[in-house]
C-alpha cells in the first residue's frame, strides 16, 4: 500500500510545467480524469494507468460545462479530503492531483462584462448547434465560447436526454489534455458512449495521446460503481439492481442464441419497469459506431440509462458474439 | 540569405517525433500554418516567428475541411516546388516543411465504407450546427466527425457567406497544433477574424501555445497580398485596388474626426461598387469581440470582403483612436 500524499496542483500553468518537466526527464505521464467522490471504479482506472506510464495525474474537477442548469451540478457529491485519503491507499502512488478552481474563468476580459454575458447566454440558447441547449458555463457568462463536438457519436443515447453533456465532456477533456499533456489517458467503460466519443475525438483532432478504456467495476451485488449511487435510498438501491441483473440475463440469452435486439431490449425494459425504475433508454448498438442494431451479428454493447427516484444511473454490457 | 533546404515531413507521427526531439533538446518550435502558394506575406509570418522561437515549421496543406463543395478548393493555386525555393530564400532558415497528404484519412475504419459515408454526409447536412452546410471533408466521407467551433466569433462577416469556413479552420489548426506541438504559432492579421478565432480557441481550450498576429503585407500599390491574387485578370486586379484605397481613406477620415460607422462604411461600399466589385460585407467591428460598432469609441477594425470576377478578396485596417 502506498502512503505518499499526492502533490496537489490547482493552477493550470503549474500543472503544465510539472508535466513538461517530467517529460523532459524521460518520464511518461498518465491522466485519469474524474469528477471526484472517488470509489473503487476510479481506483481501477488508476491501476490501469499504472500499466502504461511512469507517473499518474488524477484530475478532480466537477465540470459545469457538461451540466445543463436543470441538472444535478449543485447536488453532485464531493469529498476532497476523503478523495485524497482514498488516493493515498492506491498501490503504486498517485503523483499529482490536479484540482483547479474554475477552468472557464480566463480572468478579466472585455467579454466578461454583464452585457456580453447576457448576450452570450442568448446566443447559446438560440445558436449552439441548433439544439437550443445551454450549459452552466454559459449561464455563468464568463465568455467561454469554444466547443468541441463529435457530431455523430454524441447524438444518440445519453446525448438525447442530456443535450449539452457530450459537448461539455469533449471540451473539458480537450482542455485537460492541453493542460496536463499526458501520454496516456484512462476512461471507464461504464461511460461507454463517453469513452467512444473521446477515442474518436483523439483520432479526429490528432491528439498525441493514447486512450485506454477500463472495464466496469461492480459492487458485490452487481450494481455498477458510480459517484451517484450514494444518493440512492436503500430501497432505490435495491430496485436499481434490476439494471445489472436484467443486462446479465440479456447477455446470457444472447450467448444462448437470442440475437433479436427487440426481444433482448424488452427483457431489460420490462425488468426495470417492474422494479419501479423509469427508463431513459435501453439500446443495443455497434461497439464502435454506436448505431442501433436489429440483430446481433457483430460485437455490440447493450447500454441502459434509468432513473430511480431522483438519481439517473447508467450501465452497459458488451456482447461479443 | 539562407540556402538550407528545409526537411520535408509528410507523416504526422514523424512530425510529432521531430518536434518532441527538438523540445527535449531545449529548443522552441514555431509554427506558421499556410495553404501554400507562398508570397511575401507568408515570408513576413516566418520572419515574425523567428523573433520568438529557435526553430520554424511551415505547414503547407490546403485544408478541404474549410471549403464547402461549391467553393474554390479545386482551383486553389499550388506550386510546391516554387514554395520550397521561396522558403530557401528566407533569412534565418525554415527547418521543416510539414506537407501531409490528407489529414482526414485515418486508415481503414468501419466508418469509411460507402453506407457510413453517405449517412455521415446526410447527418452533416441536417445536423452540423444547424446551418445545413457541409464541407469537402464530409463529401469525401472518410468518417471525420469532430469539429471545433468558436461559436460567437465565427458567426459574423466571413462566417455569414462561408458557413463551414471557421469550423474547418479551427479544427485543422487544432489538428496541426496537436501534431506539431509548437510553442508559438503565427497567423496573418489579413485574416483578421480567423486570427481572433484562433486566439479565442487557444484561450478556451487551454492550448499551451502562444498565438502571434502578424501585420498585413501589401503590394506597392496597396493590394493586400493573397495567394488568390494570381487568379485576378490585370483589369480585375486594378479594380481590386478600390478595397485598400477606400479603406485607407476611411481610416484617414476617422483620424480626422469622422466616427460615424455608417458614413465610413458608405465611403468604402461606394468605392468598391463604382469600381465594379461585388461587395460581400464591409463592417466596422470591435477588435476583440468582433461586434459591430455604430460609433468609433474604442479600437475597431474595418473588415471588407468583395468579389472581383470569380475571385473573393478580403482586407482590413485597424483604426486605433
Automatic annotation (TrEMBL), chains A, B:
GO cellular component terms, A-Z: cytosol
Molecular function via GO: ATP binding; pantoate-beta-alanine ligase activity
Enzyme Commission code(s) on record: 6.3.2.1
Record InterPro entries: Pantoate_ligase, Pantoate_ligase_C, Rossmann-like_a/b/a_fold
Domain of life: Eukaryota
Principal location class: cytoplasm
GO biological processes: pantothenate biosynthetic process
A Pfam family the protein falls into: Pantoate_ligase
Keywords recorded for this protein, A-Z: ATP-binding, Cytoplasm, Ligase, Nucleotide-binding, Pantothenate biosynthesis
CDD domains: PanC
NCBIfam families per the UniProt record, alphabetical: panC
UniProt record similarity statement: Belongs to the pantothenate synthetase family.
Quaternary structure note: Homodimer.
Record protein name field: Pantoate--beta-alanine ligase
Taxonomy of the source species: Eukaryota, Viridiplantae, Streptophyta, Embryophyta, Tracheophyta
Amino acid at each position: 500500500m502506498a502512503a505518499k500524499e499526492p502533490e496537489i496542483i490547482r493552477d493550470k500553468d503549474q500543472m503544465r510545467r510539472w508535466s513538461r518537466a517530467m517529460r523532459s526527464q524521460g518520464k511518461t505521464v498518465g491522466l485519469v480524469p474524474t469528477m471526484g467522490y472517488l470509489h473503487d471504479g476510479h481506483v481501477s482506472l488508476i491501476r490501469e494507468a499504472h500499466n502504461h506510464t511512469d507517473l499518474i495525474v488524477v484530475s478532480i474537477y466537477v465540470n459545469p460545462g457538461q451540466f445543463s442548469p436543470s441538472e444535478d451540478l449543485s447536488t453532485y457529491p464531493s469529498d476532497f479530503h476523503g478523495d485524497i485519503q482514498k488516493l493515498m491507499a492506491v498501490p503504486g502512488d498517485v503523483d499529482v492531483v490536479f484540482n483547479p478552481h474554475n477552468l472557464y474563468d480566463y480572468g478579466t476580459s472585455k467579454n466578461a462584462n454583464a452585457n456580453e454575458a447576457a448576450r452570450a447566454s442568448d446566443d447559446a440558447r438560440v445558436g449552439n448547434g441548433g439544439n437550443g441547449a445551454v450549459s452552466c458555463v454559459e449561464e455563468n457568462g464568463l465568455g467561454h465560447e469554444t466547443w468541441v463536438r463529435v457530431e455523430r457519436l454524441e447524438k444518440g443515447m445519453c446525448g438525447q436526454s442530456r443535450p449539452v453533456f457530450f459537448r461539455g465532456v469533449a471540451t473539458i477533456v480537450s482542455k485537460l489534455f492541453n493542460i496536463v499533456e499526458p501520454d496516456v489517458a484512462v476512461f471507464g467503460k461504464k461511460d461507454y458512449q463517453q469513452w467512444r466519443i473521446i477515442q474518436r475525438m483523439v483520432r479526429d483532432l490528432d491528439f498525441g495521446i493514447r486512450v485506454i478504456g477500463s472495464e466496469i467495476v461492480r459492487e458485490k451485488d452487481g450494481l455498477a460503481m458510480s459517484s451517484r449511487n450514494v444518493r440512492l435510498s436503500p430501497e432505490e438501491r435495491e430496485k436499481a439492481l434490476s439494471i445489472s441483473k436484467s443486462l446479465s440475463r440479456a447477455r446470457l440469452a444472447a450467448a444462448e442464441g437470442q440475437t433479436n435486439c427487440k426481444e433482448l431490449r424488452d427483457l431489460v425494459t420490462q425488468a426495470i419497469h417492474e422494479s419501479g425504475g423509469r427508463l431513459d433508454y435501453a439500446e443495443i448498438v455497434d461497439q464502435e459506431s454506436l448505431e442501433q442494431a436489429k440483430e446481433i451479428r457483430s460485437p455490440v454493447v447493450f447500454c441502459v440509462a434509468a432513473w430511480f427516484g431522483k438519481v439517473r444511473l447508467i450501465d452497459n454490457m458488451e456482447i461479443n458474439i
